[in-house]
């Protein structure tokens, strides 16, 4: 960015928090993918996979919760722009090695600002939903590893994390 280029900031001229003005940014296709996990006892994972919890289908419910949360990110995160999201995909897969469930969310928009916060919100709320539905059988579950793994589009271009180290790649 050059010295005379407009800076994106959440502070106005008086130093008060404000929503970034993205009026002059180009509308581009933007995508973000985030991941996370819910670690649990092997018996809890087995119950979830078998559909044996009293609260119902944990994976389907958590997927839906993640999708719904991504659509409402601007209501949850201060100064986040409301976006006309064009696609939200939330995948939840059992991982016996964890043991637990791995969560991935990909969000897409044609807009002036990115969708990283929406993808992060989808993963976080899906994880919280899993915890809520299974807490009666396993209060030691751990939600973690929530992070951005890929983004594309916008002024800053494409970015991918090195999955082994979490470093930019």
UniProtKB/TrEMBL annotation:
<dbReference type="InterPro" id="IPR002820">
    <property type="entry name" value="Mopterin_CF_biosynth-C_dom"/>
</dbReference>
<comment type="subunit">
    <text>Homohexamer; trimer of dimers.</text>
</comment>
<dbReference type="GO" id="GO:0006777">
    <property type="term" value="P:Mo-molybdopterin cofactor biosynthetic process"/>
</dbReference>
<protein>
    <recommendedName>
        <fullName>Cyclic pyranopterin monophosphate synthase</fullName>
        <ecNumber>4.6.1.17</ecNumber>
    </recommendedName>
</protein>
<feature type="active site">
    <location>
        <position position="132"/>
    </location>
</feature>
<dbReference type="Pfam" id="PF01967">
    <property type="entry name" value="MoaC"/>
</dbReference>
<comment type="pathway">
    <text>Cofactor biosynthesis; molybdopterin biosynthesis.</text>
</comment>
<dbReference type="InterPro" id="IPR036522">
    <property type="entry name" value="MoaC_sf"/>
</dbReference>
<dbReference type="InterPro" id="IPR047594">
    <property type="entry name" value="MoaC_bact/euk"/>
</dbReference>
<dbReference type="InterPro" id="IPR050105">
    <property type="entry name" value="MoCo_biosynth_MoaA/MoaC"/>
</dbReference>
<feature type="binding site">
    <location>
        <begin position="117"/>
        <end position="118"/>
    </location>
    <ligand>
        <name>substrate</name>
    </ligand>
</feature>
<dbReference type="InterPro" id="IPR023045">
    <property type="entry name" value="MoaC"/>
</dbReference>
<keyword id="KW-0501">Molybdenum cofactor biosynthesis</keyword>
<feature type="domain" description="Molybdopterin cofactor biosynthesis C (MoaC)">
    <location>
        <begin position="19"/>
        <end position="154"/>
    </location>
</feature>
<keyword id="KW-0456">Lyase</keyword>
<dbReference type="GO" id="GO:0061799">
    <property type="term" value="F:cyclic pyranopterin monophosphate synthase activity"/>
</dbReference>
<comment type="function">
    <text>Catalyzes the conversion of (8S)-3',8-cyclo-7,8-dihydroguanosine 5'-triphosphate to cyclic pyranopterin monophosphate (cPMP).</text>
</comment>
<feature type="binding site">
    <location>
        <begin position="79"/>
        <end position="81"/>
    </location>
    <ligand>
        <name>substrate</name>
    </ligand>
</feature>
<comment type="similarity">
    <text>Belongs to the MoaC family.</text>
</comment>
């Amino acid at each position: 960015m050059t010295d005379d280029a407009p800076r994106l900031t959440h502070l106005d001229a008086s130093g008060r928090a404000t929503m970034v003005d993205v009026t002059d940014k180009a509308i581009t296709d933007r995508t973000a993918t985030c991941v996370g996990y819910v670690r649990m006892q092997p018996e809890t994972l087995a119950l979830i996979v078998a559909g044996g919890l009293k609260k119902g289908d944990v994976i389907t419910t958590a997927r839906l919760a993640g999708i719904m949360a991504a659509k409402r990110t601007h209501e949850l995160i201060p100064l986040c722009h409301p976006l006309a999201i064009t696609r939200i995909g939330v995948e939840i897969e059992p991982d016996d090695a964890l043991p637990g469930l791995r969560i991935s969310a990909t969000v897409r928009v044609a807009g002036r600002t990115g969708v990283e916060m929406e993808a992060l919100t989808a993963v976080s709320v899906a994880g919280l939903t899993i915890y809520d539905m299974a807490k009666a059988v396993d209060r030691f579950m751990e939600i973690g590893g929530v992070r951005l793994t890929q983004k594309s589009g916008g002024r800053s271009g494409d970015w991918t994390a090195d999955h082994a180290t979490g470093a930019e790649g």
